[in-house]
Specification:
Blueprint lengths: L1 H20 L5 H18 L4 E8 L5 E7 L1 E5 L3 E5 L10 E3 L2 E6 L2 E5 L19 E2 L4 H27 L7 H20 L5 H21 L11 H17 L3 H8 L6 H47 L2 H41 L8
Antiparallel strand pairs: 1-2, 3-4, 3-8, 5-6, 6-7
Helix pairs in contact: 2-8, 3-4, 3-5, 4-5, 4-9, 5-9, 6-8, 6-9, 8-9
């Protein structure tokens, strides 16, 4: 009797928890899942307006909190107008007799009704004008650049006025600068050549770090989760590495000293391929980690609105809070890894080999 009652109690508790955690299987939950998925996809993409957040009123109308950005197109001449004409991609913009619409986060030329024609693979066939618009990511890049300029200008001025003692915010950044110099640049590049690359290494570290941190704020920016941005950063490392590489660097790629000739012929294409694989790994690592972090964090927050219960929502909030703390560490770690590997590649490019050592 005792065992049966204990079993019934356990079964009742289990069924109660199950009903709480499966609240999302109701029809309203399915609609909520679709809405959350669309919101996450929208957050991960760049946009032509700086929308901080949005909400739907009781009448089902969408309201956005933010501000428009300038649209700059070249379509038989320069056309500049506000992104508010698109009304967040919901309407067609008319500019000097031409009509434009946003489809898949790109601007296409259309008719006055906004018709988009597609091929068999559902790719738009409409003309796409050259787009030089100031998007949300561009705004954050400009803000980050200005912030870095003023921070380190003040740090330089404090050195000039106080000798070797930093003051203000410089006291926080000075140890980081010294760490990049003493523990990243010098060990990987060498005392002789590291000064040539210090400005780039410092810039790339703080640029990625600050953008990663901004991505964790309610501003809703995902700059380093954009593969075009990470590609540009990796391209800079690639160009600097190969344009500053000495003759020994290229010699060890195409005709390795101390290696038999048949092996040189086999290894040369592999080494040349490695020249492109290294920066590719840089861009994929940064992009994938930051993109995945945003997806996981926002998915956990979205679960709070799906469960709609004290248990499910509390667990989701706790997990989201824990992941957000981890993401703060990941933001710093990804900046460190990108800077460390860049310094390592620069060290390979300027290393002075001695053939007699083989």
């Amino acid at each position: 009797m005792y065992r049966a009652s204990k079993y019934n109690l356990f079964l009742s508790i289990f069924l109660g928890f199950s009903s709480i955690l499966t609240a999302s299987t109701e029809p309203s939950g399915i609609d909520k899942k679709t809405e959350i998925k669309a919101y996450i996809n929208h957050h991960l993409k760049d946009s032509y307006d700086f929308s901080i957040t949005s909400y739907t009123d009781e009448l089902g109308q969408h309201h956005y909190i933010g501000f428009p950005l300038p649209i700059i197109l070249w379509d038989n001449g320069l056309k500049v107008f506000s992104s508010s004409k698109f009304h967040h991609g919901e309407t067609v913009a008319e500019v000097e007799g031409s009509f434009y619409a946003i489809e898949h986060n790109k601007i296409y030329k259309t008719d006055e009704t906004g018709t988009i024609n597609y091929d068999d693979h559902h790719h738009p066939l409409n003309i796409k004008p050259l787009d030089f618009s100031i998007t949300k990511s561009v705004v954050m890049i400009l803000i980050t650049g200005l912030l870095m300029f003023f921070l380190f200008r003040n740090l330089a001025r404090s050195y000039a006025s106080n000798g070797s003692i930093a003051k203000g915010a410089g006291r926080f950044f000075e140890p980081i600068v010294l760490y990049i110099r003493d523990d990243i640049a010098i060990p990987n590049i060498g005392e002789k050549h590291y000064k040539r690359y210090m400005s780039y290494l410092l810039t790339i570290f703080f640029f990625i770090w600050l953008l990663n941190i901004f991505g964790l704020t309610p501003l809703g920016v995902n700059v380093t989760g954009n593969i075009a941005i990470t590609f540009s950063l990796a391209l800079l490392t690639f160009l600097i590495t190969n344009f500053t590489g000495n003759k020994n660097y290229w010699k060890h790629i195409f005709w390795m000293p101390g290696v038999p000739v048949p092996m040189k012929i086999i290894l040369a294409p592999i080494e040349l391929l490695g020249v492109f694989i290294k920066p590719f790994s840089l861009l994929i690592r940064l992009y994938a980690n930051m993109q995945a972090g945003h997806i996981v964090l926002m998915s956990l927050i979205g679960l709070m609105f799906i469960f709609k219960s004290w248990l499910g929502s509390t667990l989701s909030f706790g997990l989201a809070f824990a992941i957000s703390l981890i993401e703060v560490l990941v933001a710093l770690l990804q900046a460190y890894i990108f800077t460390m590997l860049s310094a390592l590649y620069f060290g390979f490019a300027v290393e002075e080999h001695h053939d007699e050592a083989h």
